[in-house]
Amino acid sequence: MAPSLKKRFWKSAAVVEVDGGFNVTLDGHAVRTPSKAALHIQYRTIAEQIAAEWMAQENEVDPATMPATRMVNSVIDKVSVNADAIVEMLTEYAGSDLLCYRSLSPQELIDKQAQIWDPLLEWSATAMGATLIATCGVMHTKQDDLAVNMYRQRLKSMNHYQLAGVHDLISISGSAVISMALISNHITLNQAWIAATVDEAWQESQWGADAEAQDALLKKRSDFEFAHGFWQNASELF
Fold first, then answer.
1. pLDDT digits over 111-128, tens only?
2. CB 184: neighbour CB atoms within 10 A?
3. What value does the CA radius of gyration of the chain take, rounded to a whole number of Å?
4. Gap between the Cα atoms of 165 and 45, Å rounded
């Protein structure tokens, strides 16, 4: 979406089928990305989401309400030209995964982390062929290169749309393991979110809810859910 666009000027947004995919048009004019590239979309479901986002705008354009547009802009302007770098950046999460760094105390939190996270690390070892080492505290523990490389290869196998979706899943959760288990249908979206927020849930149980923290967490969950749906829509043909 062009940064200079402030006011709604169009009456209708439509999905137009073209060779190799779909375009979204505003009163017949094709939407372009911030870098002025054609917003050419490979998946009808995603194109329809984008058209619906543009139609939902009222007097002023609010980019915060247009996650599908933002994501496809990213696919075209960033992921398509930086895919290798993005794969390496996301692979680093496997080398320092959330699930591998456990609390030193209290025992109740230690037990809760083990209860939820240990089965996911077991899944990583069996399904991904990647055995990751859990440690206590925050000091970095180097993971086996072969284990980390299994995540690298899985990321490399994704198309650019899937890579954009999994980028947000991993960066929001802090865990390549949780994200891969989710998109592999080993766990549900709700189970993935519970695993990603063990510490936050425990803190809330001990000290009560903080309104600002709750709002921030709700926003993160909404973004996490959208990223998962985007990944699924980008997997229709694969």
1. 999 999 999 999 999 999
2. 12
3. 20
4. 15
**Residue among 42, 64, 54 nearest 10 (CA):** 54
Task: Give the Cα separation of 237 and 161 in Å (integer).
Answer: 12
3-state SS, residue 136: strand
SS3 of residue 158 by DSSP? coil
Q: Say which amino acid occupies 101.
A: Y
Confidence bin at 8 (pLDDT 50/70/90): confident
The span from the CA of 137 to the CA of 154, in Å, is: 28
Is pTM beyond 0.90? Reply is yes
Q: Which residue has the tokens 């992921």?
A: 79
Residues 154, 68: Cα–Cα separation, whole Å: 24
In residues, how long is the chain? Answer: 238
Q: How distant is the alpha carbon of residue 25 from its chain centre?
A: 26
Structure tokens given for 133: 């080492």
Query: For residues 180 and 128, is the Cβ–Cβ distance under 8 A?
Result: yes
Each residue's pLDDT tens digit, 27-82: 999 999 999 999 999 999 999 999 999 999 988 999 999 999 999 999 999 999 99
Contact (Cβ atoms closer than 8 angstroms) between residue 54 and residue 85 = no
- Structure-token match 């699924």, residue found: 232
CA distance 39 to 23: 6
3-state class percentages of the chain: helix first, strand second, coil last, to nearest 5:
60, 10, 30
Beta bridge partners of 14: 25
